[in-house]
Amino acid sequence: MITIAIDGYSSCGKSTMAKxxxxxxxxxxxxxxxxxRAVALYALRHGWINGGHVNKEALTAALDDIDVRxxxxxxxxxxxxxxxxxxxxxxxxxxxxxxxxxxxxxSRLVALQRAMGSNGGxxxxxxxxxxxVFPNAELKVFVTASAEIRAQRRYDEMTAKGEKVDFNExxxxxxxxxxxxxxxxxSPLRKADDAIVLDNGSMTIEGQNAWLMxxxxxxxxxx
Length: 223
Ligand code: DC
Known about the structure:
By secondary structure, this protein is an alpha/beta fold. Helix content is about 50%, strand content about 15%. It has helices spanning about 15-25, 30-45, 55-60, 90-100, 105-115, 130-135, 145-160, 165-185, 205-220, and strands spanning about 5-10, 30, 50, 55, 70, 75-80, 80, 120-125, 140-145, 195-200. The strands form three sheets. A five-stranded parallel beta sheet has the order 2-8-1-9-10. Strands 5-6-7 form a three-stranded antiparallel beta sheet, with helices on one face. Strands 3-4 form a two-stranded antiparallel sheet. The N and C termini lie close together (about 10 Å). The mean pLDDT is about 95. The structure holds 2'-deoxycytidine-5'-monophosphate (DC). 2'-deoxycytidine-5'-monophosphate (DC) binds near residues 10 and 32.
């Protein structure tokens, strides 16, 4: 079984395609963004994030108590509570980049991610999977699409769930996260040299899935 790293910008459909591939080939899917979101939720609930400032000392000291897991049904749990819905709010989206920039948070979550993928057979999506978590992954995909297309997707997703959001606010959030993801000192978002780029701005979900399955089969033949 091989290891598959799917990295790229926020809201570019990484998780949809990664989840589908994992299901089709019987691998485990790991959404690493959800893990960073769960840590952000923990920090928010403790009042450690205010106006873009994180109480790093408190958060770092609590890391051993922040039990983040993903179960086989794809749910994210935080200290035993299913937080799959709670980590998708605008409040968490607006705070998560500050938390994911903290080196201690990253090293803790990277260790958990490596343990989850230690036997191969995983499809892991995130920002630094092909560059940091699994630099030797047999298949690396870097997904991208324009900020407007990605904001529209996220807006549609949120309104479908009944959340009242403003499109421009979602677009600003996407752009701000791109900027923070690309410019942070610790593991910034960048394409691994050996990753294949997928610009899915004008692709259907079925087209993407077929493309990824083809790359998977190629990687298995080589790997
Ligand atoms: O994929 P997402 O939007 O759910 O990710 C949430 C945030 O977590 C995003 O701002 C970037 C960060 N992240 C990260 O720094 N490293 C990862 N491997 C995954 C996500």
